Model the fold of this input.
Amino acid sequence: MTAAHYIHSTLRERIAEHVFVGDALRALWQLGIHDVEVLRSEFDAHGYDLVMARGSVVRHIQFKTGTARRPAKVSLARVLAEKPSGCAIWMRLDQDLNMGPYFWFGGTPGQPLPGIDGYPNALRPTRNKEGVRPVRVNHHEVPGSAFVQRDSLQEVLEDLFGDLTREVASAVR
Done:
């Protein structure tokens, strides 16, 4: 991997988020689903990057990206677990920012995030003036093993909104 992946990691995450939203909306459109709302958070102070809503299902989504084969551990904010149907999606990116596979951490549509309070608190990514990385009291390090691999965007969309093929088939009748 080139140095750009860590030097410009914020830009990389924004690109991945935009591509994910575009690809998700296109896939839903192709299924005949047009009633999805996308709301962006101005800043990540409440544990999520994006809200996607469809009908009664409202998903507060925290995106994470990486170049490893799978996530090692992922820092999630406690406030994400307070959202009605919060979830986290870790996306593997290759050198050219192609995505996949995806790794899912969340409940079924309408259900809250699985409990994270039992996981250890995360450390701040930066050191203080004493050279110590202080504990982030309201963040927990969820092990990568708690995330479920999803090989396709279609699988992630079904995690987000339920069985889309069944719903499209009933709409055609």
User: Anything to note?
Assistant: Helices lie at 4-7, 9-30, 78-81, 153-161, 164-172. The beta strands are 36-40, 50-54, 57-66, 73-77, 87-93, 99-106, 121-123, 135-143, 148-150. The longest helix spans residues 9-30.
